[in-house]
Amino acid sequence: MATRASEGDGVPEVPSTVQRYIDETPQWRDGTPAGAGGMTSMQSRIWWLASAGKFFEGLIVFLIGVALPLITAYWSLSTVETGLLTAAPLAGIMVGATALGGLSDRFGRRQMFLIEMVLFTLFVLGATVAPGFVVFLICLLGMGIALGCDYPTAHTMISETQSTASRGQKVLSAFAFQAVGAVAGTLVGVAILTNTDSLDSWRLMFGVVVVPAALVAVGRLFIVQSPHWLANVGRVDEAQVELKKLLDRTPRYPSVVSLATERSTEAAEGQKLGSLFRRPWRRSTILASVPWFLQDLGTYGIGIFTPTIIATTLGDVDHNASSSSAIIHNDLLGAEGAAFIDTFLLVGIVVAILLVNRLGRMRLQIIGFVGCAVGLAIAAASTYATGTVQTVLIFGGFILFQFMTNLGPNSMTYVVAGEVFPTSLRGMGAGMAASFAKVGAVLTSFLFPILLVSWGTSTVLAILVGTSLLGAVITWTFRIETTGKSVEDIDSMFGDEHPGPPELAARN
């Protein structure tokens, strides 16, 4: 027990820390747990609202993949304009993750958690009614900036309000909604394409997102500020108030919250971006950023263009289609195949949730990278086959890729980026890692339409096999295992008496 209650009065004997209060389970005098140690209503609310942000990211990115042929034909876009369109939301994420996400270290987690969703809602509405390509492109960029801010803030809101034992599973469970959103995006596209013969039906695809996004923005008005952040910046009295709201349960426990008044010695230094590239945080920065970059090369390239690759590889579509009905038919064929394949993102994340505390972050990330390489190699081999064999290879390869990516690197890189930095740097560090990762996403989303035509599917997939294997190597080289470590345990590794993150390296 981290904070013992005095017999009879329930008052803590000595000031404790935020995480020890969160981790504590109430118990009777004989040591029997009182059964009130589960998620409180506020913890649950924060988790659901953070999960919604990941859902919208998956929904929008994959919905663009379905809507792309319609938008291209609607505005008669060139190949370069199509590349800009697919790259815009990812470029926005790249900018927003650092430019806005890092502000949560300075102004607070809750403030940015709310602002990002308000911005997202406004830009989705703008995209729905956009009068031309340029306005639509700006709205996609704006959506990306808002979603980029969500990367570090959603993670920190969860990790700084949940127990140490459940933190990894809670973060992964929220991240799973990215896969739910991806499947939902393709299903929404299929449903609309099945019931329309108009090229501008892409407006309806984006329009259905507006109301749910607005409701999530309203919900984020009614959550607490991160007690960890408040305590870290020296606002201990406010941290005690917010911590009591966070842990409000029936019967009330703890009845009194008394926090230590020490402020992190890293708070001032942690505000500077340059500190991420110096010891002791440089190793954390490399681990959080480079594997995520390599993962996003495949995740977004394959994810966005799965419908296109399927429709192109399979031989029963009209590749020169120009009529609205033919374009919609081809798009529907690819979308239906992608919807089936994308369900394995969900299977992968479910298995990851079950194994993350047993195998650890690093093992799953390495296993996942290798599995992704195998899946992409199988898909690449499909271009040399025909008929049923070709179909089996392309679907089997992509299914294995989607499963392994969410079992390992796609989910673990997100978890790790929010865990290998101290509280004073968590928002900025996770945001910077997400920004660097989205450089890879932007490159593939912009170049994929061009490279698929110029180099062919097999060559592009072969390159991604190599990047996946490189991700496994870098993960092993710079590994830092945070499984079982509390937020405060991780913070303590950055003190003067410790040499830094390498001390957290996996020993199992």
TrEMBL record:
InterPro entries: MFS_dom, MFS_sugar_transport-like, MFS_trans_sf. One of its GO terms (molecular function) is transmembrane transporter activity. It holds the Pfam family Sugar_tr. It is found in: Cell membrane. Gene3D superfamilies: MFS general substrate transporter like domains. PROSITE patterns: MFS (PS50850). Its main location: membrane. One of its GO terms (cellular component) is plasma membrane. It comes from the Bacteria. It is a multi-pass membrane protein. CDD domains: MFS_SV2_like (cd17316). SUPFAM superfamilies: MFS general substrate transporter. This is MFS transporter.
